[in-house]
Amino acid sequence: MSQIKVDATACLRCGACVQVCSTARVFEIHDDTSVAVRPDACWGCGQCVSVCPVDAIDHDQFPLEKCPLIDRGREPTAEQLTVLLRARRSTRTFAERPVAREVVRDLVNSSRWGPSAGNSQDVDWAAIDDRARITELSKATIDQIRRFGRLGKNPVTRLVLRLFLGRELVKNAARSVRLGDEMLDRWSQGRDPLFHNAPVVLVGHTRGRRPFARDDAIFAAYNLMLMAERQGLATCQIGFFQIVLERSRKVRRMLGLPEGRNAQVILVLGYPQHPFRRLVPRRTPELTWNPSQE
Question: 3-state class of 205 per DSSP?
Fold first, then answer.
């Protein structure tokens, strides 16, 4: 249980800690001060310490020396942040240059600042920089894509496969056959059509099948991707590998995640062979206010 105390001599009774802790309801305003009445309900998010205007909250998980003040003057402007968001692009051509493991560790470290449901902070990463392992996983995935396609075209197995793969994937079986054949053809030419010859494959994984686990991993991954962009690196999310992992026990065993952990997002990482020079436009999303219920 968290140890939380409030300095009554410093507390302003402003109610900020009560309001930001509206779900766990750790704090209540009493006559003279705010009081941590339910410390056992604390999620460990630290919002109470972060919001208190007079540093009146003593929380054992968040000592003030580890919680520096936010320097708003150092934050990027909206224009600078927009440039970074626009500059990040999915990259599928990588230079033959390794990425130092210290750099990968720093990028993974930056991923932890993404939000997580219930403050679970459950997203961990597996990094593969062994070229032989990456090659093995790529070939096995291509084989599985071709196998799924062939089975999906067979009327006898189509009905059973719908239970495991879903109606939409089975419906696209013919496309899977063509896709697998095309990928195999590129493979035979010495190219990696899955991981694009990237030097590092990153797998974000979480516990079991926890609700919102995929969302947490995507938030963490995008933090990592933006930081990689800022450091001159490039990334791309690999959805085909995710699909096969969820449906192939063989490929999951080859990946070797710890027991009870599920892959939620797959990224490739490396230095771009062809850095992008220009920001290009994208479709402006439609925004509907108070959409009709009819």
Answer: strand
